[in-house]
Fold:
Amino acid sequence: MNILFDLDDTLHDKRSTLQRCGARLFYEFDLQKYSDKAVFLVKFISENTVIQSKEVVFNNLAMEFGYETKLEQKLKDRFDQTFHNDAVPFSGVKEALKYLTKLKVVIGCVTNGRDFFQRNKIEALGLTKYFKVIVTSGETGKKKPDHGIFLDALSRMESAPENSVFCGDSLKSDMQPAKDLGFITVWKSSKIVKPDSVDFTIDKFYNFPSIWQAITKC
Ligand SMILES: [Mg+2]
Structure:
């Protein structure tokens, strides 16, 4: 059995990273001249949580707080170049990947986002060494839920859906397409409800070994 993981909000604790990155940018660029830090952080996190280009994110921040065009561009550039420095994984992620590696499970990552940006994050999180393949929408031009990006990852892993698990947080982009293709699906969620596209749910990665044992007994 092989496994593919989504990155953001599955392995990568995006909210914590945004919190740290936003606070750092706020001080680096003296943004207290424009707004209170707490107000900035709420807007910074919410803009970066919506699926939209970073040009739009920083333009919206500039409009909200009255940043000059030059500052808007500098903030975006600095964000692109340094966001990964603040990247934090969810607790237990590394232990789960170590556990799978020991079992000789082939592990891959399928993530939507710009190629350099996603790869910088994976590297900064210390996860590169666990992945046999990393497939980004920026690199392939195919974006989840497009089945093509899942199939690209499988072919690079020399695996088939029926021998593979997909673990992700999004029902629409991860669980549904993975289920349609015949993967066993693991939903990263704290919810009790289990939609049809979900075979297993994981809230904390400390529980990963017991879920993996249940999957491999199937
Ligand atoms: Mg995600």
